[in-house]
Amino acid sequence: MKRILICFLLLCNFCLAKEWIQIDNKVYLSTGYTFDQSHNVYFWMKRLRENSKQKIEGKDFSYTKQKLVISCDNRMARIDTMYVYDIHNEAIGAYTDSPLPWQSIEPGSSLDIIYKYACYMK
């Protein structure tokens, strides 16, 4: 049921008035995306802090925004860039120097649904 809802929201992203849609518990996806010439899709993902003990480099934070890249040709994904924000929506950290390594997309995951939508419905 959750997969059907995610697919429906992604297919209707042009009719949504808000900038983010929820795809999982405390995980949101931007309604806009771009492609490059290598058949990669770029999304922004917003992850809310899981609990009060969770920190990044010893700092409290409210959420992160991550630029997610999906390779349509290789069925892989990686985080390209990440920004960390406090409760006042002020950026308190940025990780832009080197992207994380590519990882395989697990079948049946929320990311798999996004992959299928983005790579086959473009």
Question: Could you walk me through the main structural features you see in this protein, from its secondary elements to its overall organization?
Answer:
The radius of gyration is 15 Å and the shape is globular. It is 17% helix and 38% strand. The two termini are 23 Å apart. The protein is built from two helices and eight strands, in the order αββββββββα. The relative contact order is 0.18. It has one domain: Surface-adhesin protein E (Lipocalin). Strands 1, 2, 3, 4, 5, 6, 7 and 8 form an eight-stranded antiparallel β-sheet that branches. It is of the alpha+beta class and 122 residues long. Strand 6 and strand 7 form a beta hairpin. About 9% of the residues have low confidence. Helix 1 packs parallel to helix 2.
Secondary-structure class: alpha+beta
General form: globular
The average pLDDT is 79
Query: What count of helical segments does DSSP give?
Result: 2
- What CATH calls the topology is Lipocalin
Instruction: Please tell me the total number of domains.
Output: 1
Task: Give the amount of beta strand, in percent.
Answer: 35-45%
By CATH, the architecture is named Beta Barrel
Q: Can you say what the CATH homologous superfamily is?
A: Surface-adhesin protein E
CATH class: Mainly Beta
Estimated helix fraction: 10-25%
Biggest β-sheet: count, sense, barrel?
Answer: 8 strands, antiparallel
Low-confidence stretches: 7-17
Order of helices and strands: HEEEEEEEEH
Radius of gyration: 15 Å
Number of strands: 8
Concise description?
With 122 residues, this protein is α+β, with helices and mostly antiparallel strands. It has two helices and eight strands, in the order H-E-E-E-E-E-E-E-E-H.
